[in-house]
Amino acid sequence: MLLLTLSGSLKNLPNAKKDDVYWYVPVLLLEYNLFSGSIPRSLCRRTDLEGLDLSRNMLSGKIPNCMGNLQGLVIMSISSNQLSGAIPSSIALISSLFWLNLNKNNFTGEVPPELGNLQGLLVLDLGDNKLYGNIPNWIGKKLTSLIVLSLHKNNFTGRIPPSLCKNSNLQILDLAYNNLTGTIPPCVGNLNGMVVSHSRYENLLDIDDDMNVIQVMKGVDLEYTTTWGMVYNIDLSSNKLVGEIPVELTALSMLVGLNLSNNHLRGGIPESIGKMMNLETLDFSKNELSGRIPSSMAALNFLSHLNLSHNNLSGQIPTGNQLQTLIDDPSIYAGNKGLCGPPLPNSCSNHQDPTTTTTTSKKKHKAAEQTRVWLFYVDIMSGFATGFWGVIGVLLFKKHWRQKLFMFAEEMVDKIYVGVMVRVAKIKRGREAA
Question: In whole angstroms, what separates CA 54 from the centre of its chain?
């Protein structure tokens, strides 16, 4: 089979019409070529088109505003080019659009709010551009049919809007490599598209069998074509997220991939992580997670890629089931000083995790304090005994000293007695005189 690579300008494309040839197909698929220059305005006259794929070329310049004239378009993919400028709001005029892929270009500005009118949109991929601003609230409120939302590798700031939780059909949520802050909304547990399997994607393959979705899975970029509808993935990595991993996240039982790496997440790994039975890749690395690795993680029978490195985890690494297949790779637990056991070289028999060390230290401190109290009383008793028996012992063996002591005591008693009696006599005389 001979494959030809086309080059040159798109201005030279033939302008075929439905009445010209009996085999006419209303799609223009020119991906994987070397077309350069800008997208010609003449393309806007092809109002008969239902599918347009110009991805993986060398096109530059801006998308013409007149692209909104393509009213019959259901698929627009212009990814992996060198296009720039703002995303034209005129795209929102294509009400029939359900696949919009502008990935890997140089688009700038904010996401135009007019795109919220594309309420039939199933796939929105604006990743790997230079877009900025907050992730729009209207994505969750208006684009409720979305199956794929990919906004990775942009310059988005602010929080993850809780309104995204209303996208109950989402299978893929990719917000990685931005500057997002705040916590992961607990309402992510409402993403029912990641709980119950559905096959809405199948009708997308009727026009273009080459439609694809690229996701980072198992640490590498993987391109899914005819099988992408079976991919359930959340990627929030490489942001500035804080707080704990919400336990509600573990309710998303259909998830195949979960990546929260390279953030500032704290707290422990949820004990219910073992409920995510379909997980194949799990990455919590480069956070500030603490505590033990839940033993329930051993129940993840499909897990083939795990990374918990560079956290503050402690205790013995769980063993058994699928975790045994990862025992040859100690790097997945590296950077956790409190962890012990295989595949790490340090044994738990001579290793104490920080929690145990802290408890032991408290016990030792308490014992030392009790010892000091007892020593204090012993010192007092010893001093008293030494002084008492030092005096009594001398008196027992020195008769002359005993006589002197008794005479002294007798004289003191007499003086006290005389003093008291004189004082009483004076008081009586004072009363009689009065």
Answer: 35
Q: H-helix or E-strand containing 430?
A: helix 399-433
Q: Report the distance separating Cα 54 and Cα 13, nearest Å.
A: 13
- State the Cα–Cα distance between residues 78 and 55, nearest whole angstrom: 4
> What is the token pair recorded at 260?
């929260």
pTM as predicted: 0.78
> How many domains, in total, are found in the chain?
2
Which of helix, strand or coil describes residue 386?
helix
Residue-number span of the structural domain to which 385 is assigned: 376-433
Distance CA(199)–CA(213), nearest Å, equals 16
Pairing of strands 179-181, 148-150: unpaired
Please report, for residues 16, 45, 66, 132, 229, the alpha-carbon distance to residue 20 in angstroms, rounded to integers and kept in the order given: 7, 16, 25, 45, 36
Confidence tier at 208 by pLDDT (50, 70, 90): very low
Quick check: 333 and 353 in contact, CB under 8 A? no
365 belongs to a structural domain: no
pLDDT at 22: 47
pLDDT in tens, 91-150: 999 999 999 999 999 999 999 999 999 999 999 999 999 999 999 999 999 999 999 999
Evaluated on CA atoms 186, 190, 193, 197, the torsion sign reads positive
Does the structure show a pLDDT above 90 at 231? no
Q: Does 393 share its domain with 286?
A: no
